[in-house]
Design goal:
alpha+beta, FAD/NAD(P)-binding domain, eight-stranded mixed sheet, seven-stranded mixed sheet, binds flavin-adenine dinucleotide
């Protein structure tokens, strides 16, 4: 094994890998980050809401919001629709880092901003258009990587530790045969999305996310993003998607067209660029590390996008792993101790939200609500403003998921929502009635 120029080699340079490199750079750790893509570049699949808890972590690594969110509208509310039963416009409330808004972020813009920020750190080298194609070993221990650079040349790089920040289909996880410690296959969904221009306003010019549950195993999300474009996502039970025939673009458009409450906004719009998507989005945890290696971000923990936690979890994992690596480099703990400490912290931070997300998939995608419940208790609860407050707190990780819909909270919201509904019916106007159907 040749001279060891790096303490750490990170495979993958997006939220998990590049933010880890930034934190290690700030601590003076000699770091090489190797990324297959060339920036500006977006990951193959990601239709991301970016929320204040993730932005607070981006602040910590010096990422500039004006740069990563350039020309991207701030979203301050969202509307939930339950098929033809009701709709609920709710405020997005969060005082985290002074931000009561969220974005549908342009991933190429975000990932490029984090990547470029690495040039500030003298101890960090960042190689793009370079692919890790193998690991160097000493017995079972990982001691470095084999990199194929853009010109086809292969180089062997030894390092104190190798970190897989290389996403869902992680090469590092495969090569070390990382154990899956937990997996949920019973609630998997399939997702397709496209970028649209000229999407009709929902109800006035305020940009907001529209989340439309078909109550039939499918849901649709309108996500206003940079430069006036809108991502439109169709998500459904993986088995229901698999039963549909045709190519992905025809299936996607067919699903949208079949729903007048969704299609009316798209009838005069046009889809630009390629359709993206993922079949059977995985939900799992891997073991977090072993002799000479660790995993962070999606390589460690993957889950459905319904609660939009992937970027936050990747940034948080990088923060926790960086702290353990710094202690390892300082000799305070050995590598095994560093992995143990990191794994305990990141698992405790992610597991309750993971269980909550799996519960939502079961309730909101996999089960069809009985019409009577949709017309009464669900309507009363989901149209009460407290629901919006609590949902904002849930997805910015400000309340424990177990407390999100604790029975006393639910009962209070249902009672208040029912009283509100009665008052509106007596007045003859109820803004939670579904939007009237338009002919398109
Ligand atoms: C449909 C969908 C919707 C989503 N919506 C949201 C959302 O609303 N909000 C949210 O926060 N998250 C969302 N996510 C999740 C989010 O995209 C991920 O959690 C996040 O990108 C994870 O970051 P990462 O750095 O771990 O991995 P990635 O972003 O996947 O980056 C991994 C990088 O590793 C590189 N790489 C892979 N192999 C190699 C190799 N051998 N050598 C060199 N480089 C390599 C890849 O090129 C890639 O750039 C969504 C995901 C999907 C699929």
């Amino acid at each position: 094994m040749g001279e060891q120029r790096y303490d750490v080699v990170i495979v993958g340079g997006r939220p998990g890998g590049a933010s880890l490199a930034a934190r290690l750079g700030a601590a003076g750790v000699r770091t090489l980050v190797v990324e297959r893509a060339r920036f500006p570049s977006a990951p193959a699949v990601s239709a991301p809401f970016l929320m204040p808890h993730a932005m607070a972590l981006l602040d910590e690594i010096g990422a500039d919001e004006a740069e990563y969110a350039a020309e991207t509208p701030r979203l301050r509310s969202f509307v939930l629709e339950l098929a033809g039963y009701f709709r609920s416009k709710l405020d997005f409330e969060s005082e985290l880092a002074g931000r009561s808004y969220y974005y549908t972020i342009d991933r190429a813009q975000l990932d490029t901003a984090i990547w470029r920020g690495l040039s500030r750190f003298a101890s960090v080298e960042a190689w793009s258009e370079a692919k890790v194609c193998g690991l160097l070993r000493e017995g079972d221990a990982v001691r470095g990587v084999v990199v194929e650079r853009g010109d086809g040349a292969r180089v062997e790089i030894s390092a104190g530790a190798v970190i897989g920040a290389d996403g869902r289909f992680s090469t590092v996880a495969k090569q070390v045969d990382a154990r899956v410690t937990e997996r949920r296959e019973d609630v998997e969904t399939t997702v397709y999305y496209g970028v649209w221009e000229g999407v009709a306003d929902y109800e006035g010019p305020e940009p907001l996310a529209q989340i439309h549950s078909g109550c039939d195993g499918f849901a649709f999300v309108f996500m206003p993003t940079a430069r006036g474009q809108t991502l439109v996502l169709a998500q459904g039970r993986a088995d229901a998607f698999a039963a549909l025939e045709g190519d992905p673009a025809a299936i996607y458009e067919g699903l949208l067209r079949a729903r007048p409450r969704v299609w009316w906004r798209l009838a005069g719009a046009r889809r630009v660029g390629a359709l993206a998507g993922m079949k059977r989005v995985g939900n799992l945890f891997h073991e977090a590390g072993g002799d000479g290696w660790a995993l962070v971000g999606d390589a460690y923990h993957q889950k459905d996008s319904i609660d939009a936690q992937g970027i936050y979890d990747a940034l948080l994992g990088a923060k926790l792993l960086a702290a353990s690596i710094v202690r390892w480099r300082a000799g305070a703990i050995d590598w095994q101790g560093a992995v143990k400490e990191y794994e305990a912290g990141i698992y405790a931070a992610c597991k309750p939200m993971f269980d909550s997300t799996m519960g939502r998939l079961a309730r909101e995608i996999y089960q069809v609500p009985p019409p009577m419940a949709a017309k009464t208790v669900m309507r009363w609860m989901l149209t009460h403003p407290d629901y919006g407050r609590r949902y904002s707190a849930l997805v910015t990780r400000q309340i424990e998921p177990a407390r999100f819909l604790a029975p006393p909270v639910m009962l209070t919201m249902i009672a208040k929502g029912a009283a509100q509904r009665l008052g509106r019916r007596l007045r003859g106007v109820d803004p939670s009635d579904p939007l009237p159907l338009r002919s398109v």
